[in-house]
Amino acid sequence: MLHPQHKLRFRFARTGTMALAFSYLRMSRPEQIKGDSLRRQLEASREYAIKHGLTLNETMQDIGVSAFRGKNRTEGTLAAFLDLIRDGDIPSGSVLLVENLDRLSREQVSTALALFLSIIDAGVSIVTLSDGQVYSKAEVDRDFTKLLMSIVYMARAHDESAMKSARLVESWKAKRARAQADPRAKLTGCVPGWLTLNKARTEFRVREDRAAIVCRLFEECASGIGSRMSARRLNDENVTPFGRAKGWRNTSIRQILTNEAVIGRFQPGVMKDGVRVPEGPPIEGYFPAIVPEALFFRAQKAMTGRRKGSAGQDRGTCANLFRGLVRCAYCGGPMYYHTSGGLPEGQGWLQCDIARRRVRKDGELVCSHIKTYPYEMLERHVLACLPDIDISQMLDFENQATAALREEHGQVEARLDSALAKQKRLVAMAEEVEPGDGDEVDDALAGRIAELRSEIRSLRARRKELEGRLQSTGAAVVNGEHELMMAALEHMQRLDEIDDRSERYRARASFAQDLKRFIERIDINEAFADVIPHGGEGIALILDAKAFAGMMEGNQA
């Protein structure tokens, strides 16, 4: 919808004594504004207004908005203008100036005609500047051939756009077929920031300096460093970003980390209401792979792990080692980490995020556990109990063959998570498809969903097979894993000796990632924290001795 400021401009125009004219400019692609069209249309509007003694309003512009899909009618400045007409804020006798009727609409004739009639029935005339035609209720009622001519123009505009759309769809289908058959065939000159396309458009070339940055981002992500911190470090090191941005942002880094082009995969797609929808299976090997698949899926798994159950502040310091692990024992919600009064690193507080935000369901509070707990105490207790965790119950750190199986199992799980997420998005899109959106969109969505379901079945079968093979192998060398954990713990305990803030962050982030291999979750109740290892028995750590004593007395009673 139009910004409220523009509505005020429309109303302000009414203060004049002359009739009002509104110049409406629409271009379907933003790059069209670079040509002479904008100046030409504005100039024609001004000349018409002067010639007919009209007060001209030039605020109506829809640049990069499609009239074929009706975006200008539902979301653009034209939509706001129609709202003002319905509200009575555009006086009868006003004039809407357009270059041609196709500037108003390229939708199907019935829809375009309804739009056309709604404007002139409100007493607003439509003038097409290219031929000087005036369409008003009085003119159309007097001479019905004007209405017939307008319908002809509308039909032609829609047919032209429909034909262009169909040709574009067929063109891309042909390109995708060539790309599937011939890896050298390139669909477009638009490439990821770490690649270039040669002049013959037959080969992608890797920009090694940028590829190194991408690999570094994946390594950092897999080791527990978040995209916000990675962006800050790149900016501190004055590393030039790939695009036109003036610095690295966590959003641009997440786009890189989730882009399957780094492992050579390209997903063809079609546009639906301005959103790119996958069409057909991904093309493997389309791009040069610059990141090992194992690293890519480790990074995906790390990002998923950080998203699950995370809440609260952690401003690039990795102050909270238990992000994504610590939960409220009463409602299962994440514990919110926050600091107050500028406390040093590690000296924050934990509180149930659901209770803190007073989340309600059916009018009732979901959780009333509002008690806060000193984070530093929890960290100290958890680190102290790590040597007591029986690793043999949860890990079988075996020979290289089993390690390879475990690596593949992790990749399969990450790919399965990704496929399930894609399927969920596509099903949601399919439910929003309306009649008339086009059979090609419906078919594309249905086909891709079917392919994903097949892929999900295969991945689940492979995961089950790998789990069976891992289970049959049995635990062989537990001590090696235990020694690695103890070495990491010893390093953590010597962090006070490290002056470099960046190195301290890296060490804590890496250790936090390692903790997730050992600890499934940490449940906090009124009195204690229950540290639950993967497949092992929980270890109770008392956080509030008085509350714990009260709980024990209550149990005895």
TrEMBL record:
CDD domains on file: Ser_Recombinase (cd00338)
UniProt feature coiled coil, ranges: 449-476
Protein name: Recombinase family protein
Alphabetized SMART domains for the sequence: Resolvase (SM00857)
Organism: Paramagnetospirillum marisnigri
Pfam families the record matches: Recombinase (PF07508), Resolvase (PF00239), Zn_ribbon_recom (PF13408)
Residue ranges occupied by any Resolvase/invertase-type recombinase catalytic domain in the UniProt entry: 20-179
GO molecular function, one term: DNA strand exchange activity
Highest taxon in the source lineage: Bacteria
UniProt keyword list: Coiled coil, DNA recombination, DNA-binding
Domain Recombinase: 191-309
